[in-house]
Design a protein that fits this description.
By secondary structure, this protein is mainly alpha-helical. Helix content is 32%, strand content 6%. The protein has a domain at 36-64. The protein has helices at 2-15, 18-22, 86-98, and strands at 43-45, 51-53. A hairpin with a 5-residue loop joins strand 1 and strand 2. 0% of the residues are buried. InterPro entries: Ribosomal_mL41.
């Protein structure tokens, strides 16, 4: 009898891992639990059910100036077949000039 009790306790300890119990997900929480998408709130709720957006809480994106940028923002779905890249041709030309 005591041996069966010890074996049962050992099985219970083996089944429940403490690391999995500490993580709270929407599957382990209550029915109306929503964890969210790690977004910051941009305002607050009013007493009458409205929502006020605050300008100081909105994200500020800093975009660099791309006027003299060499690359274009378009990537073709059907790229052209290139046998040699421009970098390899320039190194081949410089090697020929060195001889």
């Amino acid at each position: 009898m005591p041996l069966g009790l010890i074996v049962g306790l050992a099985r219970a300890m083996r089944r429940k891992r403490t690391s999995s119990l500490s993580i709270l997900s929407s599957k382990r929480g209550p029915r109306d639990y929503y964890k969210g998408k790690n977004c910051k709130p941009t305002g607050f709720h009013t007493r009458k059910g409205g929502y006020v957006v605050m300008d100081e809480k909105l994200p500020l994106y800093v975009v660099p100036d791309l006027t003299d940028f060499k690359l274009k923002p378009y990537v073709s779905q059907c790229p052209r077949d290139a046998t040699a890249t421009s970098a390899s041709t320039t190194t081949a030309e410089s090697a020929d000039k060195a001889k």
